Amino acid sequence: MTTLFGNLKSDGLEQSTDNLGGGSFTRESDIYSGKIKMAYAGAAKSGARFVQLIVDLPDGKEYKETVYITNKAGENFYLNKSDNSKKVPLPGFTTIDDICLCATGKPLAEQDAEEKIVKIYDFEAKAELPTSVPVLIELLGQDISLAILKVTENKQAKNANGVYEATAETRDINSIDKVFNTATQMTVVEARNKAEAPVFWDNWLERNKGKTRDKTSKVIGNPGAPGAARSGPPQAGAAPARQSLFGKK
Fold first, then answer.
1. How far apart are CA 138 and CA 75, in angstroms?
2. Rounded to whole angstroms, how far apart are CA atoms 169 and 149?
3. Does residue 228 sit in helix, strand or coil?
4. CA-to-CA distance for 96 and 127, rounded, in angstroms?
5. What is the pTM of this model?
6. Cβ contact 89:109 at 8 Å
């Protein structure tokens, strides 16, 4: 077995904070607890790396999300615009790193990976095909709680150069906003700061439950005009060593 993301450590990155911030089936914004069914790694054509997460929820349905953890240069951070000496972790990297810590007590960089055959949708074949992919095996079957937002965003379409850009049409999607340890209801930040009791869980619900976050922007004329909303893999652009915050299971 190998540690597939051993080079993607949080050392030297700014610490994450708890911030409330502003498919055919879209869930309402809420905190959902379930068991991790699958977590496998992949890469986009651009080179950006991702983790495909699938969680079994109590209602019998799965929650799936493709979370990008690097930009196309393979970096899990971007430079702070006001201070280029500070490396800020990409939101997707923080999400997956927090899932690893909350579920196993170990960060992403220390997770064992093993090649397994998984059915993955093939766009050319238009069907799910058995595919060999690296799976983060320590996550499988672990409990996790996800604060999932319902988000309205601009749809994407290819322009004349074959590049995806925002259009005036919109769609509703789901996105993981925060991760909690199911047993304690604490975030990684709360555990790191040795909080006596969880606070962010209830605060997040009060701020977001049942509400849809609007991330659309007006697209006038050329859908790729400056300021148009974009989605997909992040583009290229010191924390102390982690310890087992919730205890390895």
1. 24
2. 20
3. coil
4. 27
5. 0.79
6. no
Residues in the chain: 249
Tokens describing residue 57 = 């929820």
Residue 58 Rama label (left phi>0; alpha psi -120 to 50; beta): alpha
Instruction: Judge contact between 148 and 70, C-beta under 8 A.
Output: no
Identify whether the C-beta of residue 143 lies closer than 8 Å to the C-beta of residue 33.
Answer: yes
Residues 46-57 have a mean pLDDT of 96
Residue 75's alpha-carbon distances to 51, 214, 231, 244, 248, in angstroms, are 14, 28, 18, 24, 27
- The domain locations on the chain are 30-214
Query: Per residue in 141-197, pLDDT tens?
Result: 999 999 999 999 999 998 999 888 999 999 999 999 999 999 999 999 999 999 999
**Residue 92: helix, strand or coil by DSSP?**
helix
In 3D space, the residue among 88, 89, 32 whose CA is nearest the CA of residue 65 turns out to be 32
CA distances from 114 to 3, 8, 36, 133, 136 (A): 9, 17, 16, 8, 7
Distance (Å, rounded) from C-alpha 149 to C-alpha 214?
10
The rounded distance, in Å, linking the Cα atoms of 60 and 234 is 32
Distance CA 247, CA 111 (A): 14
| Residue pLDDT, tens place only, 82-108 | 988 899 999 999 999 999 999 999 999
CA neighbor of 53 nearest in space, from 100, 123, 10: 100
Closest CA to 65 of 101, 22, 36, 31: 36
